[in-house]
Amino acid sequence: MYVVELSLKLSPMPIAVQRKELADAQALYDSVRQALEGMGPRVLELRCEKEPEKKVSLLSSEVVAVQVYEKFASGGGGKRPGFSFDG
Q1: φ and ψ at 69, to 5 degrees?
Q2: Domain limits of the chain?
């Protein structure tokens, strides 16, 4: 399972969407990144893979960061998302 996580301006909680396959997560990441590079704000719609009727829309101008990481089944001992100096 892979997580695509978006950090938003003035929001302490990120928005996260899960994808089963790395290729699907990478495609979503690329889509968000293209929206960030584009001219002017765009509306991004993120959908749940399991339940497509669950969705959220947000303005690309409110996204400050996007990352992809693998979600591990075990709660501890795994690599944390983001960038850090510890293993």
Answers
A1: -150, 160
A2: 2-70
Residue type, 76: G
pLDDT at 28 over 60: yes
Instruction: Name the residue among 8, 4, 5 with its Cα closest to residue 64.
Output: 8
Contact 20, 5 (CB under 8 A): no
Neighbours of 20 (CB within 10 A): 11
pLDDT of residue 72: 78
Residue with the larger pLDDT of the pair 18 and 73: 18
The token duo for 12 is 């302490």
- Relative to beta strand 63-70, strand 2-8 is antiparallel
Assigned token pair, 29: 């990441």
Alpha helix segments (H runs only) across the chain: 22-37
Is residue 68's pLDDT more than 90? yes
**Is the pLDDT confidence value at 49 over 70?**
yes
